[in-house]
Amino acid sequence: MENYTMEGRTYRYYGQEAPLYPFGYGLSYTTFHYRDLVLSPQVLPICANLSVSVVLENTGLRDSEEVVQLYLRWEQPSVPVPRWQLVAFRRVAVLAGRDTKLLFQVPAEQRAVWARDWRLEPGTFTLFAGGQQPGQETRAPSEVLSAQFGVAGAARPLRGC
Questions:
Q1: Which residue ranges form the domains of the chain, and what is each CATH number?
Q2: Does 6 have pLDDT greater than 80?
Q3: Fewest CB atoms within 10 A around its CB: which of 12, 28, 40, 90?
Q4: Out of 29-33, 35-39, 49-53, 98-102, which region has the weakest mean confidence (pLDDT)?
């Protein structure tokens, strides 16, 4: 075997074809609403971590749990990368009719790309937050919020940070 690329071999690298059962697939006994996605800072130095906050509200009639998922998409990568990558998740219990603000740290390592070694590159990125993958179609209503941020500075090896 000479071709070790993952292109066409895992759902992370499929074109527009969605996986049959993506991460987060399933039903809940209630409904959730996401709002107020905030990324800080809006432009990161190349080696900095990203702070993320999002509000999750249980809009249903039952207490329940939700798995909040954060995905990252590179907008102009220099090498092949997944369509999006899971960078954080957390299971959260929310009482019916209540909301909670969640805080996440997305470390710089999550933005690294493989180009003969792990490298951090400048550019524009999109972060998605929700109860499912971006673009996923399900029978149960769920939403995914998105926001863009930038990374400034010269590309550098990850081990140099």
A1: 32-160 (2.60.40.10)
A2: no
A3: 40
A4: 29-33
